[in-house]
């Protein structure tokens, strides 16, 4: 059989049928985002794994960190540069006291598993903050609903797509 006869995998097969990846892909297309998500051949559950797979700096990874607000159990999403550590005290000063969120909470509130939480397309409305350190870069990469899915955007596009405030929420 020649390569011309080799069947091309469907988008669903290439993404493992990931509903989250498909949801983010459809949402970005609907919003007119110029860069379609990419499916990586390897999972990128950490900022370092994503940077290695994409050949970019760790700081260019727009990592999603989910907290649980103590007052009302609202999900708080912080999108931060992959080379920075989120400062819970700074987050709490903006949204009220927060605690760690477990995998079940993250999945229920976002619709995504840890390691693939996109900054948009969540199961429910989240309190979202974008760290200003992402603006050190012209382009950044965010998770697209699955550990193997990523998409490129500028920090300005991230702020526009999410409608989230840009604030200082990382450790010095």
Structural notes for this entry:
The chain is of the alpha/beta class. The chain is 28% helix and 22% strand. It contains six helices and eight strands; from the N terminus they run ααβαββαβαβββαβ. Strands 1, 2, 3, 4, 5, 6, 7 and 8 form an eight-stranded mixed β-sheet that branches. Strand 6 and strand 7 (149-153) form a beta hairpin. It is globular.
| Number of strand elements | 8
Largest sheet: 8 strands, mixed
- Uncertain runs: 1-13
How many helices in DSSP terms?
6
The H-and-E topology, N to C, reads as HHEHEEHEHEEEHE
Distance between the termini: 59 Å
User: Strand share of the residues?
Assistant: 15-25%
What best-fitting shape do the alpha-carbon axes yield? globular
Protein traits:
172 residues; alpha/beta; globular; disordered N terminus
Summarize the SSE layout with pairings.
Layout: H1 11-14, H2 19-30, E1 38-39, H3 47-54, E2 61-69, E3 75-81, H4 88-95, E4 98-100, H5 103-110, E5 127-131, E6 140-143, E7 149-153, H6 155-162, E8 166-167
Parallel strand pairs: 2-6, 3-5, 5-8
Antiparallel strand pairs: 1-7, 2-3, 2-4, 6-7
């Amino acid at each position: 059989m020649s390569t011309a006869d080799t069947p091309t995998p469907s988008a669903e097969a290439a993404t493992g049928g990931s509903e989250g990846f498909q949801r983010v892909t459809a949402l970005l297309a609907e919003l007119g985002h110029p860069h379609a998500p990419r499916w990586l051949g390897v999972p990128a559950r950490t900022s370092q794994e994503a940077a290695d797979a994409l050949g970019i700096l760790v700081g260019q990874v727009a990592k999603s960190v989910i907290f649980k607000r103590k007052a009302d159990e609202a999900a708080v999403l912080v999108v931060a540069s992959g080379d920075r550590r989120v400062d819970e005290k700074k987050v709490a000063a903006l949204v009220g006291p927060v605690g760690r969120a477990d995998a079940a909470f993250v999945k229920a509130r976002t619709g995504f598993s840890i390691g693939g939480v996109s900054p948009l397309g969540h199961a429910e409305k989240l309190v979202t903050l974008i760290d200003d350190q992402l603006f050190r870069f012209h382009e950044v990469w965010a998770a697209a609903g699955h550990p193997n899915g990523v998409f490129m955007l500028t920090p300005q596009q991230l702020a526009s797509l999410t409608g989230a405030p840009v604030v200082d929420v990382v450790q010095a």
